[in-house]
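Sequence, please.
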């Protein structure tokens, strides 16, 4: 049956669409003067957004830790404030969840859900509606990172690429470019989208351009002497954010590993087939949003149940940074907060196994 938290998570997940509609209707009745202006299209978007809210709540309940939900509440406050939603509407969304969900759920499941929502509302009061820049003035290569992101935001991909190649030619290691230019630039571009300063199209352009520019650095990746270790890197099905996983693969290449990068949204069966064919030492799994965590657990369970795969599994991505012990709950052997740490953890796991 699982814990009460796990049962509540499953209840919400199975009925998410129905619950979302009930919650939105309740909020529209509470604040008709505000919500009526958006019409039927706005109502449909509100239901869609409510399903996201419920997905994050369900995943936090599944882990018996409110951290993932509280972080999502923070994200929502920044995002919707910068879309010019009034504070009353943002708060009303989570108040409506608190009022409606316990009434619709079995009595034994209601208290834990109500607790998480009360924590979310308290958190909403404390957190700012702004998000500071990811460019720290004291960070290495901050001027390069800033110029790089500005070139991308102007749509000048060739200029951005030229800046990177010139920086590498000046003697800056490729690892430093990844850690101190690409990584903060991508985070900053994400911040600009979240705060409604750029469009999703611009954000996608910048990400695609960065992946293309990274490919120009590949000749530097394969100059390291091979060390006879193999890595497969994958994003679970549904996961479309792949640049972090690509960075992980590239860092392992720089360390002398042979890597097999599967990219975004890879079905579990395809990953299992690849693992059997490649006989790898490490599987690295990337996930950036909490609703995809069940896919990570399912994939790891399938790997463990497949004969002839004596490999180690590392997980990484935003949810694991928010909740540092989450890697144990999904059944992984280790966790990495970034590409550099992933290489350290991969080598540690192999060396520990061989002792």
């Amino acid at each position: 049956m699982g814990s009460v938290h796990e049962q509540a998570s499953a209840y919400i997940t199975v009925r998410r669409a129905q619950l979302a509609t009930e919650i939105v209707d309740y909020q529209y009745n509470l604040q008709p003067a505000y919500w009526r202006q958006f019409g039927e299209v706005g109502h449909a978007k509100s239901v869609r957004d409510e399903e996201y809210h419920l997905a994050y709540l369900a995943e936090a309940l599944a882990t018996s830790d409110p951290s993932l939900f509280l972080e999502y509440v923070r994200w929502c406050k920044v995002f919707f404030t910068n879309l010019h939603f009034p504070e009353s509407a943002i708060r009303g969304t989570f108040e409506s969840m608190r009022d409606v969900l316990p009434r619709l759920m079995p009595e034994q499941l209601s208290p834990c859900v109500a607790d998480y929502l009360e924590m979310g509302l308290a958190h909403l009061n404390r957190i700012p509606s702004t998000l500071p820049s990811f460019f720290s003035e004291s960070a290495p290569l901050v001027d390069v990172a800033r110029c790089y992101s500005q070139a991308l935001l102007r749509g000048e991909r060739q200029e951005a690429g030229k800046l990177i190649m010139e920086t590498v030619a000046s003697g800056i290691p490729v690892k430093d470019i990844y850690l101190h230019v690409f990584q903060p630039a991508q985070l900053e571009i994400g911040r600009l989208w979240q705060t409604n300063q750029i469009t999703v199209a611009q954000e996608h352009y910048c990400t695609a351009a960065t992946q293309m520019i990274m490919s120009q650095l590949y000749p530097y990746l394969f100059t390291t002497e091979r060390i006879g270790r193999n890595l497969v890197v994958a994003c679970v099905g549904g996961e479309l954010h792949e640049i972090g996983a690509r960075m992980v693969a590239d860092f392992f290449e720089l360390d002398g590993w042979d890597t097999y990068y599967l990219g975004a949204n890879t079905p579990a069966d395809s990953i299992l087939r690849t693992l059997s064919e490649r006989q790898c030492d490490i599987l690295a799994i990337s996930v950036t949003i909490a609703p995809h965590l069940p896919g990570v657990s399912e994939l790891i369970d399938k790997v463990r149940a497949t004969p002839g795969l004596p490999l180690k599994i590392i997980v990484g991505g935003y949810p694991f940074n928010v909740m540092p012990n989450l890697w144990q709950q999904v059944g992984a052997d280790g966790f990495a907060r970034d590409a550099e740490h992933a290489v350290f953890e991969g080598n540690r796991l192999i060396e520990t196994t061989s002792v």
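The CA atoms of residues 12 and 58 lie 6 Å apart.
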